[in-house]
Structure formats: C-alpha cells, structure tokens
Amino acid sequence: MDLEQLNDIATQMVAHGKGILAADESTGTIKKRFDTIGAESTEDSRRDWREMLFRTEPAMANHISGVILYDETLRQTAADGTPLAQLISDTGAVPGIKVDMGAKDLAGAPGETITEGLDGLRDRLNEYHALGARFAKWRAVIDMGRKGDDSIPSPYCVDVNMHALARYAALCQEAGIVPIVEPEVLMDGDHTIERCYEVTEYGLKKLYAELYAQGVQLEGTILKPNMIIPGKKCPDQASVEDVADMTVQCLANCVPSAVPGIAFLSGGQSDLEATAHLNAMNAAYDLPWPLTFSYGRALQAAPLKAWNGKDVEAGQKAFNHRARMNGLAAMGEWTPDLEKEG
Ligand code: 13P
Predict the structure, then answer these.
(1) Does residue 194 carry a catalytic annotation?
(2) Quick check: 54 and 91 in contact, CB under 8 A?
C-alpha cells in the first residue's frame, strides 16, 4: 500500500468548495427514480442521464471532486465512445465505485440487515482499479426501529456491520483504492434526535476501533456519515442549528483528526435541508477535517425533474445550481437568498 498516494486521492476528494456526486444507484434504485418522471430505465437511458451530469459545466470542474459510480456505469462509454470514467477524470474529478452488494437480512436479528459483498472483493477491486476507479464506497445500513424501543439497532447488528466495513476498507487500501466508509443511521421512523446521536456515536466508536484492529490507515480513508437528525416521523423536528451543533459534537467525539475528510450522505433530507445543514456546520465551526457533501438524492432530484427524460439543457442548469449551492455550503458561504438564482 502506498499511503501517500491514498492520502493524495482522499485529499483531492475533499478539496475546498468541492464534494462528491453519488451517482451509484443500483439498477433497481435508478428505476424507482426514473419512475418518478415516467422515464423508462434502460442501459441507454441510464447512460444518457449520467453522461448529461458528467458533462455539466461548470458544475463538474468547480464543485465536484469525485463521482461514485455503479458497476454498469464504470464499464459504459458516452454516446461518442469516450469511457464515462474518462469524462469524469477529464473534468478533474476522481472516478469511484460502489462495491457493496447491498443490505441483506441479518440472521437472528429480525428487521435488521448486514451489508454483503466481501466474497471475491479483492479481485473486483483490482479490476475496478484497472478500469480507472481510485476510490470505493461501502454502505452499512443501521435501521432505527421505533421510538421508545431501544432493541433496534442491536449491538450485534452494528458490530458486525462495522467489522465488515473495516474488512472492506483494508482490501481497498491493499488495491490502491481509497475506501469511503459509510455507516448510515437511517432517518426513517419516529426516533428523536438524541436517539440518532446515541446510535451514531456507538456506531462510529465501533467503526474506528475496527479500522484500527484491522490495520486500516486512516489517512487513506474518507468517512461518509449521516447527520444527527430526528426520524422523519418524529413529532419534534430540529432546527438547522441543532442539527449542525449535534452533528459536529458527535463527530468531534468519535472521528480521529487523521481522517482527511468527512463527506455527508443526504439520506432523504430535502435538497435545501441538506445544503443548509452542511452550511451551518462550516459557517460556525473550525474543525480538524473538511466537511463536505457526498449527496445522491439532494444533488440529483432537481436535475432529474428538469431533465424529465430528454431536456439536457434544463437538467444541466438544475445540476449547475445544486452543485454550486452545495459547493458554497462546503465553505460555509451559502445563504437562502442564493437559491433564487436557480
Ligand atoms: P443520498 O445522498 O441520496 O443518501 O445518497 C448517498 C449515497 O451514496 C447513499 O449510499
């Protein structure tokens, strides 16, 4: 493992004012997204949609440091024959790849899941590296159960998921690929913000213990966490400032300063919430790591609607706007007024 090289890539992924575009929806998930605009999901339509995003200027060059791809996309070429990974590198962004095989039922833990995909991962990583990927992503999913019932998540579920994340991370580093470690505490449900804090803290402490135990070099990793936020159905919703304060407090308690950067998932927040929360953290705090975005839905929902299966100009305009807003939020320079420019 060349740690300096891994650290260079990780540092590039969290460059000032830039963040990551998570375009790694599985074939099933992208079909659901296309269904919302009545577009058919075919290999070509998925390619057209993603090619449109990767060709968006100045969003890609100015605000996107890396793109997470799905296996199919890393192997696809643009309509003119250029590999999509090449299109991304040409903008100055780093191509990356989702390598987990999804969350499956966890034996002996009804309602909980374990993320699979470790079998054969070494070979897949070597192939992905040859195809141009320089970072990877693995998402552990922590379900929150119901308010007042602390039996979910079980420590068993969190522990095995963090163990798997560390196994994945070690294999990535061996292959010269920066692992994004993503332990996602879901927003679904009616849990309080305090419960989200408690579970996220437990998960992150376990995660960093596992990474240490398995020899993962933190300088060559990126953390992709959830924000500390109440469940969508919780009657007590939190202010932007509370989410920012509690998220920063939780991260400061759990994440070593050797980590080159933290890039949040949006997890079902609205576009504006995801931008406002990120901005509030960067505006109010001076932290040991850059805080930026690695958004899927919060970057793509508006462009998808504007594109509507065919309108490239409208899609790119919407993507330019959202990417710029989040780029500003990554520097603590966003204000709600700027949204009118979209
Ligand atoms: P969201 O921002 O839509 O949560 O997606 C990010 C991601 O990559 C989830 O794994």
Answers:
(1) no
(2) yes
Protein residue with least CA distance to atom 1, ligand 1: 296
Q: pLDDT tens digits, residue range 235-244?
A: 999 999 999 9
CA of 131 from ligand 1 middle (Å) equals 23
The values of phi and psi at residue 283, to 5°, are: -75, -30
Q: Which residues of 165-176 are buried (b: 16+ CB within 10 A; e: fewer)?
A: bbbbbbbbbebb
Domain extents in the chain: 3-341
Mutate to test the pocket of ligand 1, among 67, 297, 326 (most ligand atoms within 8 A of CB): 297
Largest CA distance in the chain: 55
Distance of CA 24 from the midpoint of ligand 1 (Å)? 8
Instruction: Give the C-alpha distances (Å, rounded to integers) separating 205 from 11, 46, 225, 252.
Output: 23, 38, 12, 11
Rg of the Cα atoms in the chain: 19
Backbone angles phi, psi at 327, to 5 degrees: -60, -40
Distance 302 CA to ligand 1 centre (A): 15
pLDDT digits 0-9 by tens, 58-117: 999 999 999 999 999 999 999 999 999 999 999 999 999 999 999 999 999 999 999 999
Angle among Cα 295, 83, 133 to the nearest 5 degrees reads 55
pTM, entire model: 0.98
Q: Catalytic one among 25, 112, 182, 184?
A: 182
Top-tier CATH class for 3-341: alpha beta
Sign of CA dihedral 40, 45, 49, 52: negative
User: Rounded distance, CA 192 to CA 82, Å?
Assistant: 48
The answer to whether residues 82 and 120 touch, using CB atoms and an 8 Å cutoff, is no
Is 317 part of the annotated catalytic residue set? no
